[in-house]
Amino acid sequence: MNDEFDVIWRKGDGEMPDKAKRVVNAAREEKLLRSLQLPIEVVDTVRYNASKNDQTVNDYISSIVVGYIKPA
Asked: Which residues have a Cβ under 8 Å from the Cβ of 59 and sit 6 or more positions away?
């Protein structure tokens, strides 16, 4: 196994590059979806609908929650 890797950003280096932002955002979305412990079919639907609406998974789930809470 190769233990070498490229460091693309470190805290304090200034603004995070787009490549690093995409990786971080994808990890956050995956963590959110796993923490909700949804069935895989629901996870796939959430990802599909978020993509279809040109939203992040986080934004899509937030809009669902806000929409559910407002009428209450």
From this structure: 50
Full 3-state SS string of the chain = CCCCCCCCCCCCCCCCCHHHHHHHHHHHHHHHHHHHCCCHHHHHHHHHHHHHCCCCHHHHHHHHHHHHHCCC
Mean pLDDT per 10-residue section of the chain, whose length is 72 residues:
69 81 89 95 96 94 91 66
46: CB partners within 8 A, 6+ apart: 33, 38, 57, 60, 61
pTM (predicted TM-score): 0.70
